[in-house]
Amino acid sequence: MLRYTVDSTGEGSAHRTPAPAPEDTPAVVADPRRPRVGGLIPGIKLDVTLETCVQCVAATRDFLPAHYDADYARASGAPQPFINTMFIHGFIDRAGTDWAGPLSRVVRREVRFHSPAFAGAELHASGRVVEVEAGGSSDVVVGLEIVVRSGDRLAASARCDLQIGAAARYPDSNER
């Protein structure tokens, strides 16, 4: 980092300050079976298109016209149609399970919505490990803090707990 200072005579000078030590900067947790509090999870991105909004309406049966009709959305004060809340829940889950892998499942999720994600925006979810709890056998329950941004605005913040390990696996239809 370059820092500029001025002394008592009014003379200025620039000098370098050392970069933060690597251990001060959180790193991505590469192995979800060995999570550590403070570690980051890789972010995910998705473009929200009008087609995405319409597909979400069809999938969730949330037929509020503001989710797919631009004129209705503008008449109700929104600049564009916006994605529904169930989509944001799924996007948060995906951020965690994409990192944790196929032997993981969401066991708890709490979401706080801050602003809508409008058609034309890019959603970005990122997160960090905030809690690690040993589960049964070799399983672990990992608490994640995840934020979802829509462009430059905060769309949602969440706490998402994942069970990771063999017990998290859903049974095959043959095993039921």
TrEMBL record:
Protein name: MaoC-like domain-containing protein
Limits of the MaoC-like domain: 58-144
InterPro entries named in the record: HotDog_dom_sf (IPR029069), MaoC-like_dom (IPR002539)
The species this protein was found in: Prauserella endophytica
Family: Belongs to the enoyl-CoA hydratase/isomerase family.
Skewed-composition ranges (Polar residues): 1-11
Domain of life, per lineage: Bacteria
Residue numbers spanned by region Disordered: 1-33
Coiled-coil regions listed: none
